[in-house]
Write a structure and sequence with these properties.
The complex is a heterodimer of chains A (about 250) and B (about 190). With about 250 residues, chain A is α+β, with helices and mostly antiparallel strands. Chain A has seven helices and seven strands, in the order ααααααβββββββα. Helix content of chain A is about 45%, strand content about 20%. About 0% of the residues of chain A have low confidence. In chain B, helix 1 crosses helix 3. Classes of the chains: A alpha+beta (about 250), B mainly alpha (about 190).
Chain lengths: ~250, ~190
């Protein structure tokens, strides 16, 4: 009998024309091979025509749903990948423009949030008990009433500290009078519009900083803010007695 | 670009719907479990869409069945492999179907119905079953089957020959068990 694999290949049309011709010639002289080829054809035909057709609409629908999800994801990925540099660049430009705009428009204003953070930022004032330094002298020179206030019945300068608020030098001065401690903050720029829920009264602006009453006024290019556990009137009265020698 | 993608999805869906009975049928015949077949068919469709850009545009059904077969081999077969499911030796002898058979083809095949073919097919060891399914039911060429099963074409040839021989035997056994063959022979 002819090689059976060859017979199957002939039935499947998988032999070349020459091989096919050769096998067919051999089959003519072999009854067994002829019968076997016929059996192969019959089985193939039976399987092809009688095998069941399966389908499942639910699975097809679920598959298509997943394809739609995958397609959506691929579209987003594609968009982000393609335009990532553009999107990042646009954000960068927006941030830069916003920064420049903010710097130009608000250059002379200090926001209330900045003032509050300044209190945390500026270190605790150094004790006045230490030997006076050149900065002490500068500060005494800055505050007109500094020498007068060494009288404990009026206002005593107990110490000072310097901090930095966005490149501006901020001075915090610890004061004390008969009623207790006060803090005086000197900031370059205008704070009159920077204090939240503030009320203007004459040259003073009153409001809250870190939950404490505070009163501010502008002197030249400087703003001075007095903070303490007092009424606004008391703070205004104290602040009115403070002046800068070289504002 | 967006329109291009939509066209791609539409084209894929049209082709996938057309060949889905083949995909699902092959998955069911391979896994012999409806639940596994649903998972396998669904996974194959998603994989195919993911790789649709790499489809060469020739024979979509053969390409899909290649994905189904590969997925089955890589994922399901390892999980399902039982003692009787392992491949037989590919180099084993191919037995003739007609010589030893005492049942004429006409009697056997005229009485056989679809469910019996499926049952007989399920009894054929899976490597041989896979080759017969892809060849006789899905009408793939030997080369396409070789690509799908990742074996040489000579192996496909011998697996088909042996698989058919086993299938024929299995059908005969079933027919004899059911009793209708005796009547047919008489």
């Amino acid at each position: 009998m002819i090689d059976l694999a060859k017979l199957h290949a002939l039935a499947d049309g998988e032999l070349s024309a020459e091989e096919s011709q050769l096998v067919r010639e051999q089959i003519l002289s072999s009854e067994e091979s002829n019968r076997e080829l016929s059996a192969i054809y019959n089985l193939k035909d039976c399987v092809r025509t009688k095998s069941q057709v399966f389908t499942c609409e639910v699975t097809l629908a679920a598959s298509m749903k997943r394809v739609a999800e995958l397609d959506r994801k691929q579209r987003v990925d594609n968009f982000v990948t393609r335009y990532a540099w553009g999107i990042s660049g646009a954000f960068l430009v927006m941030i830069a423009v916003g920064g420049v705009f903010s710097r130009n428009v608000n250059a002379n204003q200090v926001q209330s949030s900045e003032i509050a953070s300044t209190f945390a930022m500026v270190p605790t004032p150094a004790s006045r008990a230490a030997a006076p330094t050149a900065y002490d002298h500068w500060l005494d020179g800055l505050l007109q009433h500094a020498k007068v206030s060494s009288d404990p019945t009026h206002l005593e300068v107990r110490g000072w500290a310097v901090g930095d608020l966005e490149g501006r030098r901020v001075v915090k001065v610890a004061l004390r009078d008969l009623n207790g401690d006060l803090a005086l903050l000197m900031i370059p720029g205008n704070v009159s519009e920077g204090m939240g829920d503030s009320v203007s009264s004459g040259s003073f602006v009153s409001g809250k900083i870190n939950g404490m009453n505070s009163v501010a006024k502008n002197i030249g290019a400087q703003s001075i803010i007095l903070v303490g556990d007092r009424s606004y009137d008391q703070l205004s009265e104290i602040l009115s007695r403070i002046a800068l020698r070289n504002p | 670009m967006l329109f291009g993608r939509r066209d791609k999805k539409d084209a894929f869906e049209r082709q996938a719907e057309k060949v889905f009975p083949s995909v699902f049928g092959t998955a069911l015949r391979l896994t012999r479990s409806r639940e596994d077949a649903e998972d396998l068919a669904q996974e194959a469709i998603v994989r195919a869409y993911d790789a649709y850009d790499r489809f060469d545009g020739t024979n979509f059904k053969a390409w899909m069945l290649r994905i189904v077969t590969n997925l089955y081999i890589n994922r399901y077969r390892q999980r399902q492999r039982g003692p009787q499911l392992g491949s037989l030796d590919d180099e084993g002898m191919i037995e003739p179907m007609s010589i030893e058979s005492e049942i004429p083809d006409r009697v056997l095949f005229d009485n056989t119905v679809g469910a019996e073919i499926e049952e007989a097919l399920a009894k054929v060891p899976e490597d041989f079953r896979m080759a017969v399914i892809l060849s006789d039911i899905e009408d793939l060429s030997y080369q396409e089957i070789a690509d799908a099963m990742n074996v040489p074409i000579g192996t496909v040839r011998s697996r088909i020959a042996r698989g058919r021989s086993m299938l024929r035997k299995s059908l005969e056994e079933y027919a004899i068990r059911e009793g209708y063959l005796r009547e047919g022979v008489e």
